[in-house]
Amino acid sequence: MRAREIMTRSVVTVRSDTTVQHAAALLSEHGITSVPVLDEDDRVIGILSEVDVIRNRMPHDPRSHLRPETHQRPDPGHLVRDVMNNIVICLGENADIADLAALMLDNNLRAIPIVDGAHLVGIVSRRDLLRTLIRDDDLVRAEVVQRLDDFAGEGARWKVAVDEGVVRIAGHFDDASQRESVMALARTVPGVLRVQTDRHRL
Q1: pLDDT in tens, 109-156
Q2: SS3 track for 92-134
Q3: Which of 123, 167, 172, 200 has the fewest CB atoms within 10 Å, measured from its CB?
Q4: Same domain, yes or no, for 14 and 71?
Q5: How many structural domains is the chain composed of?
Q6: What is the β-pairing status of strands 44-49 and 34-38?
Q7: Interior/surface letters 162-195, b for 16+ CB within 10 angstroms, e for the rest
Q8: Residues with Cβ < 8 Å from 39, sequence gap 6 or more?
Q9: CA–CA distances in Å: residue 82 to residues 37, 48, 147
Q10: pLDDT: is 58 or 120 the higher one?
Q11: How many other CB atoms sit within 10 Å of the CB of residue 47?
């Protein structure tokens, strides 16, 4: 499965001179956890997360403390460029979502911008990845059948069953190469967790 198949194409973005308050309002309004920061040529130059917005911005309630604060709180910054993360991991549209998910987990990222060259074309969030795990089995089966029909002609010889994302393909394969091709095609369908083949009919 590729990034282009699951990414969100209508991406909420901000500029580096956007106020943090306005960026926070966008995050809240759209129910998202981060936004890419673009320059005047629409190239990704940073990313702003909820953590960046919240950091050093929550004042203590004096009613909760016996003694008043004695240290000076750091200026949290008023523009996006003051608080955004300048190091951004971007991937292309053809990125394998398994690699994308590994990058998210290894780097504790909530979203990864998807680019074509230097320009933003989409974004993949953790929520987008989760959606691939909860697709209806009937929808998954229909897409697998369609791809096999495109590969071998309508009414292909294989029978397909899907149970909780596990695809079983039964029927005759001409050789090991054809079997591997069929399994690879099935794996490209969003929602497929594993593919099994069986020479017997389902």
Answers
A1: 999 999 998 889 999 999 999 888 888 899 999 999 999 988 887 666
A2: ECCCEHHHHHHHHHHHCCCEEEEEECCEEEEEEEHHHHHHHHC
A3: 200
A4: yes
A5: 2
A6: antiparallel
A7: beebebbbbbebeeeeeeeebbebbeebbbbeeb
A8: 15, 16, 45
A9: 12, 10, 48
A10: 120
A11: 25
User: Do 125 and 160 touch, CB atoms closer than 8 A?
Assistant: no
Which residues are bridge partners to 47 per DSSP? 36, 85
Domain limit, last residue, from 133, 154, 187:
133
Distance CA 194, CA 185 (A): 12
Q: Is the pLDDT of residue 104 over 60?
A: yes
Look up tokens 């791809």; give the residue.
147
Question: Considering Cα of 98, then 88, then 49, then 22, what sign does the dihedral take?
Answer: negative
Q: Are residues 27 and 64 in the same domain?
A: yes
Q: How many residues does the chain have?
A: 202
| Claim: this prediction has a pTM higher than 0.85 | no
Say which residues have a Cβ less than 8 Å from residue 144's Cβ, sequence separation at least 6.
160, 162, 167, 169, 185, 186, 189, 192
